[in-house]
Write a structure and sequence with these properties.
With about 375 residues, the protein is α/β, with parallel strands linked by helices. Strands 1, 2, 3, 4, 5, 6, 7, 8, 9, 10 and 11 form an eleven-stranded mixed β-sheet that branches. Strand 2, helix 2 and strand 3 form a beta-alpha-beta unit. Helix 7 runs parallel beside helix 14. The longest helix is centred in the C-terminal third of the chain and has 20 residues. The protein is globular and about 65 Å long. The protein starts with 10 loop residues before the first helix and ends with a helix.
């Protein structure tokens, strides 16, 4: 997954590249005598991630103080690029843990054998529907829903009910209103394509997209352009004079609009069409050949701990996967709960993703 679901809230963090998040943890930062039989264990554990990983400094420092490890984060572009690099360095990884592979690329990661099985402490608290690998080569960390968002003011002014389902989007009243991202170049775009596959099946999604195209769907390269330029409901879209009141984004987008609003609005200016969603689940795994396997295991335990899970929503704008983690008020007040998102099995995605994207491109873009 490309991590545009984290939206603007992690833009500054994403610019940091390779980052050591804290210097706490005690002991030497690294094992300077690697290879010696009596060498001390490394005190540094390296997390390889996409650019949008983020955590509150005090939360990370608490883990470092309790575990004795210093956490180093190696940011490697979007999730697809980061995963590709780990596949290319299989057996000699750049770090100890990889975070950011999602259910759209999970089978590719597992088939390439880049992870060592480890059942994280606290995994019992993870909701069973998120545990997709029974061998525990990966640990679920967060989830997020790709959904159509709508501009509340537009539909109120026009006295039209906003669409709620995929079926609604092909109705005449929503003609020329939707902008989506290219499924070949964008994670939300791919997720929206997969939502249609989940809803209409492998034999029906093409017919749906033919109707959506006939109803005037606009396709742009990526989320930034769709949400912050073409969508009339976002702060960026208003400045850019966007004229599309429907956009493919995330269920967490309305809380973000509130959080970064200037001035902060009492109510989110955008809503979510909950019958249009595809659920993404992100995982982390212990990399095969990790230099600090013990530290990697401790880090995986931390990622499913209540402390990290409750910190995560306002840092990466995703949902926790554990049963005991509470959402912040911003999410409960301005967000939505997607009860029945569309899903497609990871192995089905792996088998068909490339041909689906090619078929979609030929049908919708060319």
């Amino acid at each position: 997954m490309s991590t545009t679901k984290k939206l603007a809230g992690v833009a500054l963090a994403a610019a940091l590249g390779v980052t050591t998040l804290s210097a706490c943890g005690g002991g030497d930062a690294e094992d300077k005598t690697a290879g010696a039989t009596d060498a001390p264990k490394s005190k540094t554990v390296t997390l390889v991630s996409h650019d949008s990983f983020n955590v509150t400094d005090t939360v990370l420092k608490e883990f470092e103080q309790q575990s004795g490890y210093t956490v180093k984060v190696l940011k490697s572009g979007d999730a697809g690029a980061a995963l590709n690099q780990e596949i290319l360095t299989k057996g000699s990884p750049r770090g100890d843990v990889f975070f950011g592979v999602d259910n759209t690329f999970l089978s590719r990661a597992l088939d390439n054998g880049i992870f060592t099985p480890y059942e994280a402490k606290g995994l019992a608290e993870v909701k069973p529907e998120y545990v997709l690998d029974k061998e525990h080569r990966v640990t679920p960390v967060d989830s997020g829903d790709i959904c159509v968002n709508y501009d509340k003011a537009y539909f109120a002014d026009k006295k039209i009910a906003p669409p709620q389902t995929l079926d609604d989007l092909i109705k005449p009243e929503y003609k020329n209103l939707l902008v989506t991202e290219n499924a070949a170049t964008s994670s939300p775009g791919l997720g929206f394509l997969l939502a249609s596959v989940g809803k209409y099946g492998e034999d029906g999604w093409k017919d749906y997209w033919s109707k959506l195209k006939a109803n005037g769907v606009e396709v742009v390269d990526g989320w930034e352009q769709a949400y912050n330029e073409r969508f009339s409901g976002s702060a960026g879209g208003k400045k850019a004079k966007g004229d599309r009141p429907l956009v493919v984004s995330y269920a967490s987008s309305p809380p973000v609009e509130v959080l970064f609003g200037e001035p902060q609005p009492a109510e989110a200016p955008t809503g979510v069409s909950t019958g249009t969603c595809f659920r993404q689940i992100e995982f982390a795994g212990l990399l095969k050949g990790a230099k600090n396997e013990a530290g990697g295991k401790a880090l995986l335990d931390f990622l499913v701990s209540k402390k990290f899970q409750e910190d995560m929503p306002l840092q990466m704008f995703v949902n926790p996967v554990t049963k005991d983690a509470a959402l912040p008020e911003l999410f409960t007040k301005h967000g939505v709960v997607v009860e029945k998102p569309e899903n497609v099995a990871p192995e089905t995605i792996a088998k068909n993703r490339e041909q689906w994207v090619k078929a979609w491109t030929a049908l919708v873009v060319k």
